[in-house]
Amino acid sequence: MTGTDLTQMQQPRFAGIPTFMRVPFSTDPSTFDIALAGVPFDGGVTARPGARFGPREIRNMSTMMRGIHHVTRFNPFDACRVADIGDVPFTDLYHLERAHDDIRRFFEPVFRAGKLALTAGGDHSITYPIFQALAPREPIALVHIDAHTDTWDSFKGSKFTHGAPFRRAVEAGLLDPRRTIQIGIRGAQNSDEGWRYSLDHGMRVVFIEEFDALGAAAVAAEARRIVGDAPVYLSLDVDGLDPVFTPGTGTPEVGGLTTRETQALLRGLDGLNWVGGDVVEVSPPYDPSGNTALVAATLMYEILCLLARRASSEHR
């Protein structure tokens, strides 16, 4: 396995055509091991829109990313071929389920070719069609970092909003609830439906108070116990972090994770059997500073390291 062409990374950060982390652009799965992709879609939001602008701003802020991880000394770009495959091209943007079909069709050839994908959203509804594109032979495991369980049933006539992707995935036989852990859950609700669904179906729900009591290392160990050696996907909603760190999101909840806690948690998940991941719900209009997108890009880099270590180990 050869590494990534980093010619663009040698240019000034303000120059060149922006791609995620300044990797090459490619739509040919034979040229990459890990795809970085954008899904500029927020048709599934139930409150504040704007996540459609997330991928563009995350790309912009991802120019700040570098190669070598300062803790592990691992360089994901040396270990794997990483490419930006662009954004999902929507043909029916204003019909939620048809837009999800566009997302599914975009990712199907990537997963069919045996590649890994790391995606920038977009609202959290996009994870369900990505699961559909994965088309696993058996339900996959999930590490889910979020303020919300996203296991509600329907909202104002739709079952496919950003509050429902993991319920739909369980129903479709794509997600194993007993190998699912949801971390950072908090915030008063008008209904306990989501919490009840997750708990009643065997998901391990780590409310933020338990996270505080245990710490990042112990929660990471619990996630490893829950997931085991199953194929696992990582889904990170930036509202899992406290809005002090990620104000640019549609459904902020006070009292969340810090950036350092989130990085420590992710680093504790190294070595799992990753099949993909996403970072979602960045809404740049609510954060003129760009800090939310910078946090998202940095966490995408942490996740990229996890995926690349897994992919490179398989080719040794």
Automatic annotation (TrEMBL):
<dbReference type="InterPro" id="IPR005925">
    <property type="entry name" value="Agmatinase-rel"/>
</dbReference>
<protein>
    <submittedName>
        <fullName>Agmatinase</fullName>
        <ecNumber>3.5.3.11</ecNumber>
    </submittedName>
</protein>
<dbReference type="Pfam" id="PF00491">
    <property type="entry name" value="Arginase"/>
</dbReference>
<dbReference type="GO" id="GO:0008783">
    <property type="term" value="F:agmatinase activity"/>
</dbReference>
<keyword id="KW-0378">Hydrolase</keyword>
<keyword id="KW-0479">Metal-binding</keyword>
<dbReference type="InterPro" id="IPR006035">
    <property type="entry name" value="Ureohydrolase"/>
</dbReference>
<comment type="similarity">
    <text>Belongs to the arginase family. Agmatinase subfamily.</text>
</comment>
<dbReference type="InterPro" id="IPR023696">
    <property type="entry name" value="Ureohydrolase_dom_sf"/>
</dbReference>
<dbReference type="InterPro" id="IPR020855">
    <property type="entry name" value="Ureohydrolase_Mn_BS"/>
</dbReference>
